[in-house]
Amino acid sequence: MNQEELKKIKADRVVDARGTSCPGPLLDTKKAMASVPVGGILETMSSDPGTKADIPVWAKKMGYEFLGVINEPGYDRIFVKKSK
Amino acid sequence: MKGKIGKRMSIVLFSGTIDKLMAASILTTGAVAMDMEVDLFATFWGLNSLRKDMVKSNTRFSRDFEEMTGPMMQLFKSKNVPSWYETLKKAKESGTVRVHACSLASDLMDLKKEDLDEIVDDIVGVGSYISQADEASITLFI
């Protein structure tokens, strides 16, 4: 997805993991995904620079769809679709 | 593509300094996030650090970098990094993490199950560890 499409997303659930260090945001993302309905979108906000690299790998392993990242000042917004 | 679920990681936790304990607990958390099961086999100083009276009071750092203890502790605090124990506890609450105490080291240090923190599941011999490690796709010695 491009930046414009990502900005339009209204996530079903948002995890604000800003201020927590690796691997906190990844674990919070995994936990939160359990309550996202199939077809729903999870947004993770993270200030840890490793998270935007870890979440796509995790999503692939879990069989979810990584949609993209929006870089905000000081943090990232990372979008994953629970495709199944 | 769906990844392989149900894979395992196995760690021999030999060291008892907080820098290495931290590495072990962060790797454990990463594996849990990836839906892997983790077996930690704590022996010698790793086991010593799991004593009830040690889990929160341990301030030892690797000797090679001993002079960094103060600055690193400050950094952990300012960057909001949880302790190795909190990290391991959270990993255990979030997935399948089994902490095994080495029976020989327990015997040598005269430690019973009740002397060890509740995070420890059981006391086992090296044979159990080898059979767990044999089924793991990642094996680490820390």
Secondary structure elements and their pairing?
The complex is a heterodimer of chains A (84) and B (142).
Chain A: H1 3-8, E1 13-16, H2 24-33, E2 41-46, H3 51-62, E3 65-72, E4 75-81
Parallel strand pairs in A: 1-2
Antiparallel strand pairs in A: 2-4, 3-4
Chain B: E1 8-13, H1 18-33, E2 37-42, H2 44-48, H3 69-78, H4 84-94, E3 97-102, H5 103-108, E4 122-124, H6 126-134, E5 138-141
Parallel strand pairs in B: 1-2, 1-5, 2-3, 3-4
Helix pairs in contact in B: 1-4
What is the fourth-level CATH superfamily of chain B? DsrEFH-like
Strand percentage of chain A lies at 25-35%
The largest pleated sheet of chain B is described as: 5 strands, parallel
Specify the helix fraction band of chain A: 25-40%
- What is the CATH homology-level superfamily of chain A? TusA-like domain
Number of helices of chain A: 3
SSE string of chain A: HEHEHEE
CATH arch. level architecture of chain A: 2-Layer Sandwich
Question: Segments of chain B where pLDDT lies below 50 for 5+ residues?
Answer: 1-5
Low-confidence stretches of chain A: none
Q: Can you describe this structure?
A:
The complex is a heterodimer of chains A (84) and B (142). Chain A is an alpha+beta fold and 84 residues long. Chain A has one domain (3-81): TusA-like domain (Translation Initiation Factor IF3, 2-Layer Sandwich). Chain A is built from three helices and four strands; from the N terminus they run αβαβαββ. Chain A has helices at 3-8, 24-33, 51-62, and strands at residues 13-16, 41-46, 65-72, 75-81. A four-stranded mixed sheet of chain A has the order 1-2-4-3. In chain A, helix 2 links the parallel strand 1 and strand 2. Chain A is globular and about 30 Å long. The two termini of chain A are 19 Å apart. The mean pLDDT of chain A is 94. With 142 residues, chain B is of the alpha/beta class. Chain B has one domain: DsrEFH-like (Hypothetical Protein Ychn, Chain: A, 3-Layer(aba) Sandwich), CATH 3.40.1260. Chain B is 40% helix and 18% strand. Chain B contains six helices and five strands. In chain B, helix 1 runs parallel beside helix 4 (84-94). Chain B is globular.
